[in-house]
Amino acid sequence: MIKNKPIYILGIESSCDDTSAAVICNGKILSNVIATQEIHAKYGGVVPELASRAHQQNIVPVIQQAIQQANIDKKDLNAIAFTRGPGLMGSLLVGSSFAKSLSLALNIPLIAVNHMQGHVLAHFIEEEKQQKPSFPFLCLTISGGHTQIVKISNYFKMEILGETLDDAVGEAFDKSAKILGLPYPGGPLIDKHAKKGNPKAFKFTKPKVDKLNFSFSGLKTAILYFIQKKTKENPTFIKENIDDICASIQYTIVEILFDKLKKAVNETKIKHVAIAGGVSANSEIRTVLKSYEEKLGWKTYIPKFEYTTDNAGMIAIVGYLKYLEDNFSNQKTTATARLKVNEN
Predict the structure, then answer these.
(1) Quick one: the chain helix, strand, coil %, rounded to 5?
(2) If pLDDT is split at 50, 70 and 90, which confidence band does 11 have?
(3) CATH number for domain 133-303, candidates 3.30.420.40, 3.40.50.2300, 3.90.1150.10, 3.10.450.710
């Protein structure tokens, strides 16, 4: 590799319901275009078949836009990085098929990326005022499909220390919102209402789970029974107490996450701690993590909002890091719905 030569990587992300393309040059994002699919809101969740159809409609214009915004020609690209998994199979196939075709047409390398590694390694995107974590560090990876504490020893050596035994934290937020009659996606709305409420207004029992693992199914059931009981006594209970209910739910979920994270820090003696994934956009999680710098002497790393939810910028940075190691894929690489953070 010629020193200081610009290396352009196109990242393609299509694991769920967002079609995204990004161009990165030597670790710096030049463009990061996301087409969000509005159609799922009326169904209260992502419909896989509708998602894959929407990806097919969006992928060409999104990639075209990303290349134009980066102010380069597609012939300037050095490699194509795409999300191999985990995710919805139909959605993944749209992105992986397009990436393979484009890499063949341009005769440039193909790089398969683990979506979960993308969330973690988004911390290494070159950004002003954004400090990169030092190895080793712990990362609380929280999204609609995952809740894990991961030990990161280097870019591609990751060990899961604990994970959810049932539902992910993002699902707990969204399902709680649904119980309260809030529209999908409900997680951000709980966060919004919680800012105006009393977090100790209502008490929800935290599940007892071994080691560094999590569980959220029991909490969701407890919230459902609580709301059913209260609305039976008072039909307008939700409307009258929405802020306090949301604040109490959020407080409980954040406590569950940080109880385990504190335990992980104590066990590993690693005080460099990051968060990643869609739920890391939650304002309370960010506030609590930041407060631990002073309270517990942690060094914390919080990603920019645009790199928390599914986006191609995080796929592009992994593609760039793999490119530097000559870690390429081939046309036989297949998309996979299930993939752990420590798998490639």
Answers:
(1) 45, 20, 35
(2) very high
(3) 3.30.420.40
